[in-house]
Specification:
- By secondary structure, the chain is of the alpha/beta class.
- It has one domain.
- It is 34% helix and 11% strand.
Amino acid sequence: MHIPADQIIYRYPLAAAIAERYVKTPVIVGRKDDKHDMVTKLLDGMVLLDHKRLVADDWAATNDLPKINPVMLVVARNTNEADELAGIIRSDSFRGGRHRDAVLVVHSNAKEAPPTSSEPLLVSDTSS
């Protein structure tokens, strides 16, 4: 989808949001074993996200604050890989399909289209 430049109200890159401390610096997940397939990597990230959600919920309850919605940013090498990763996360075989409606894909070739959703998972690519 192409949106004409004169219809874009504001563009705010993730790097700027991190530099200005509006969002936290992303965490990179790694393994010590030889499992390096994409599904394993995504599942490892989801385990971390689940843990983060539990800790954040506990902290919010203890401090009488509203809950937050932690997110997971997945960076792909290119738009094809971003679509492939989104397909994996949306599939019924990935954690029972729990995340099928929770993926926002942002392509580098669609820079004119600002994200309109605050879904818990974001699949992006690094090609430009």
